């Protein structure tokens, strides 16, 4: 005997698919006490990102590593553009120059001239998930589709690779803006009869760090943490960071 059942009526449950996304922004050369949004790098730079990794540590500096494609995949001539300076619709980058024979300069390395990124540039890296939330959907507090700031700090290393198994690549590494606090002192610095918060401010001032304001605590601090009259004696030793 054969029994045929009708499909249930009504909307079927849907499935959500998310893909990791990264956003890179270049910040000013000097750390700003008030914070800054920076300038988001162009779409063609984001399209070069092959790998993005941020490491957050509870007892040290946050670090980041970005691996980018390091070759122009097309030139203005390839895209049918007449103006290599970017005036034509097909051109992307003014650095995609052509030699007098209308041939692209070779090799087509994109970041070797440090015209886009170079040592010391401060980057901000944000993570999130694609796709964008529909305008009709109400946002939620823990929204995976909102950009989450991960790290901001200078580029400390750039490594160029030309392996046969893949195209030309550049790996950009950096640390967060606390990296200046790794500089070692030339002499012993006494911190006598100071609360812990005063010690922190004193160390930041001696390091010429532009941010000395501290976040409000979520719990009540003991007196030795905030009151200099109940402070502690300590010192930053010579050669200590």
Explained architecture:
The structure is a single chain. With 241 residues, this protein is mainly β. Helix content is 8%, strand content 27%. It has three helices and nine strands; from the N terminus they run E-E-H-E-E-E-E-E-E-H-H-E. It has a seven-stranded antiparallel beta sheet, with no helix packed on it. A two-stranded antiparallel ribbon has the order 8-9. Strand 6 and strand 7 (169-175) form a beta hairpin. It is flat and about 90 Å long. The N and C termini lie far apart (83 Å).
Q: Which class best fits the helix and strand makeup?
A: mainly beta
As laid out across the biggest beta sheet, the strand order is: 2-1-5-6-7-4-3
Q: Give the helix proportion (percent range).
A: under 10%
Task: Provide the low-confidence segments as ranges.
Answer: 82-92
Kindly state the mean pLDDT as a whole number?
79
In what range is the share of β-strand residues? 25-35%
Shape: flat
How many separate helices?
Answer: 3
Biggest pleated sheet: 7 strands, antiparallel
Summarize the topology:
Elements: E1 19-26, E2 39-40, H1 43-46, E3 49-55, E4 63-69, E5 122-130, E6 148-161, E7 169-175, E8 189-194, H2 196-206, H3 223-226, E9 232-236
Antiparallel strand pairs: 1-2, 1-5, 3-4, 4-7, 5-6, 6-7, 8-9
């Amino acid at each position: 005997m054969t029994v045929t059942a009708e499909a249930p009526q009504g909307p079927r449950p849907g499935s959500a698919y998310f893909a990791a996304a990264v956003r890179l922004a270049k910040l000013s050369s000097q750390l700003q006490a008030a914070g800054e949004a920076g300038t988001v790098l162009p779409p063609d730079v984001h399209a070069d990102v092959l790998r993005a990794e941020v490491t957050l540590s509870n007892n040290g500096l946050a670090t980041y590593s970005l691996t980018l494609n390091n070759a122009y995949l097309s030139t203005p001539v390839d895209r049918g553009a007449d103006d290599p300076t970017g005036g034509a619709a097909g051109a992307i980058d003014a650095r995609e120059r052509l030699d007098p024979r209308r041939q692209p300069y070779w090799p087509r390395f994109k970041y070797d001239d440090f015209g886009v990124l170079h040592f010391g540039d401060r980057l901000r890296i944000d993570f999130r998930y694609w796709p964008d939330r529909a305008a009709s959907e109400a946002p939620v507090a823990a929204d995976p589709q909102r950009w989450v700031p991960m790290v901001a700090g200078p580029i400390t290393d750039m490594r160029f690779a030309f392996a046969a198994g893949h195209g030309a690549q550049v790996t950009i590494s950096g640390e967060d803006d606390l990296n200046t606090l790794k500089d070692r002192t030339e002499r012993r610095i006494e911190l006598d009869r100071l609360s812990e918060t005063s010690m922190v401010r004193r160390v930041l001032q001696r390091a010429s760090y532009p941010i000395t304001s501290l976040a409000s605590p979520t719990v009540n601090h003991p007196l030795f943490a905030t009151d200099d009259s109940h402070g502690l004696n300590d010192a930053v030793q010579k050669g200590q960071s």
